[in-house]
Design brief:
- The chain is an alpha/beta fold.
- It contains 11 helices and 21 strands.
- The protein is globular and about 65 Å long.
- Residues 49-468 form the Amine oxidase domain.
């Protein structure tokens, strides 16, 4: 499940807790004037959330912009496809209440009413043995809002609950920006703070694996501290969970294209950029096109291929970020089997389950999507193997599935869902600027200060747009 990201289910939130978008212009009223006097449009290369955010912010600032996307759609890692009358998302994407940049993007493209956001963080945690836990925030200020839930969490022994509270307070004291945390493994730190294997499985993995798309033992402490400190241990409403109520292609892709074009911008789909040259000039399907500036908003491997060496001499290091996969298992039952909108799971191959029945347009039965992050174990397994593992696992979690007929079962795989957020990865993430004054980088893999999530992607696009605007118009904000 990708949270705010293309890859992970839980997006991280702004510690300040602002409900307003991080932006340079008023998102409420598109600007189509070209008062800046800029000639050639700004070229945004890549139509994922980073590129969309950059194009919209530039258009709002009155700058001409053209967005180029090699695929026949916008949305990047957040997209949908049709299957036997269903509209299926490639993976489950989740955001939190205080994902201010992402929520600002939704406002820009008219998507605020097309998502569902909890009134209060409330998470059911299931086990194959039939035991369950619940984490629900209390009506207390942060960080006290989750302490009663931790103190009564039924999947931990009483002694482990106390140690979990103590560990949470220690996490809150960390500075995620400290580069030293990038060299420490989360699992090592948790063990040093009294968190045994059972506590890691039943509590810390629920959020770390989902947000970082990597196992607790292998994750870097820095981004993990960002997740826990800001999402769960900061403002009380920070972790309220939001999910799309419509297919991602409608929430992001088509809506974003329409918004960019309403502002006077241009979107070119199925347009492959093959080179960036001094000027700057971009080469699109063999055509050389002048640009006033270029925002390179592709995944890190494509960016390393396109960024000229003299603009980004460290580009070969970006490959060290690697990739981490996500697998989504889709099950369509002929009848309802659970009343939960979503749930987390421990001690099972199932990690998170989401009811996608209404969003996918299912008219009969119930359609559930299982999101499995850090899915190295499953990414190359055949569908038959996954069916043999996950169908019985779902029967253990939801007994009503045993009496239901499985009308459809299929799997979607994102081999490069996120970069691998292991120790040392933070030092490999580049800034938005390059050595060419007219070329800027965007993407959730850049140095946003956030994990690889949808929120990080949008923030990177806004940062690149702000730098372009400053260069072309002299505006500092």
């Amino acid at each position: 499940m990708t949270a705010s990201n293309p890859g992970a289910p839980v997006a991280v939130v702004d510690e300040a807790g602002s409900d307003g978008p991080v932006t340079e212009a008023d998102p409420g009223r598109p600007r189509t004037g070209r008062s800046s006097g800029v000639g050639a449009p700004v070229a945004v290369v890549g139509g994922g959330l980073a590129g969309i955010a950059a194009a919209l912010a530039l258009g709002e600032a009155g700058l001409p912009v053209t967005l180029y996307e090699a695929r026949p759609r916008l949305g990047g890692a957040t997209h949908s496809f049709a299957r036997d009358g269903l509209v299926v998302d490639n993976g489950q994407h989740v955001f939190l209440r205080c994902c201010t940049a992402y929520r600002g993007l939704l406002k820009r493209i008219g998507g605020t009413a097309r998502v569902r956001l909890q009134d209060r963080f409330d998470l059911r945690v299931l086990t194959p043995a039939g035991r369950s836990g619940r984490l629900r925030r209390a009506a207390l200020p942060g960080p006290l809002h989750l302490m009663p839930a931790l103190a009564s969490y039924g999947l931990l022994r009483p002694a482990d609950r106390l140690r979990a509270v103590q560990c949470a307070l220690a996490l809150r004291g960390l500075d995620p920006a400290d580069p030293g945390l990038d060299r420490i493994a989360l699992g090592e730190w948790l063990a040093a703070h009294g968190q045994g294997a059972a506590a890691r499985r039943a509590l810390w993995e629920l959020f770390a694996v989902a947000a970082l798309n990597i196992g607790v033992e292998d994750a870097a402490l820095g981004p993990a501290a960002m997740v826990f400190r800001t999402a769960l241990l900061g403002r009380a409403d920070a972790a309220d969970i939001g999910v799309p109520a419509v297919p991602l292609r409608d929430l992001h892709g088509t809506a974003a294209q329409a918004a960019i074009e309403r502002q006077g911008g241009s979107v070119r789909l199925a347009a492959k950029v093959t080179a960036i040259e001094p000027g700057p000039v971009i080469v699109v399907d063999g055509e050389r096109i002048d640009a006033s500036a270029v925002v390179l908003a592709t995944p890190h491997r494509q960016a390393a291929h396109l960024a000229p060496w003299d603009a980004a001499p460290d580009r070969n290091r970006w490959a060290g970020l690697g990739e981490s996969p996500i697998v989504n298992v889709h099950l369509h039952y002929d009848r309802p089997v659970t009343g939960l909108p979503f749930a987390a799971v421990v001690d099972s191959p199932v990690q998170w389950v989401f009811d996608r029945t209404r969003a996918a347009g299912v008219r009969a039965g119930q359609y559930l999507a299982v999101s499995v992050s850090a899915a190295d174990r499953w990414i190359d397994e055949p569908t038959a193997k996954l069916r043999a593992e996950f169908v019985p696992a779902m029967e253990q979690l939801f007994p009503d599935t045993r009496r239901a007929r499985l009308a459809d079962f299929f799997v979607t795989r994102e081999r490069r869902a996120t970069f691998r957020q292991a120790p040392g990865s933070g030092a490999l993430r580049p800034a938005a600027t390059t050595r060419w004054p007219g070329l800027y980088l965007a993407g959730s893999w850049t140095d946003t200060g956030w994990p690889d999530t949808m929120e990080g992607a949008v923030r990177s696009g806004l940062t690149a747009a702000r730098l372009v605007r400053k260069r072309l118009t002299g505006a500092a904000s």
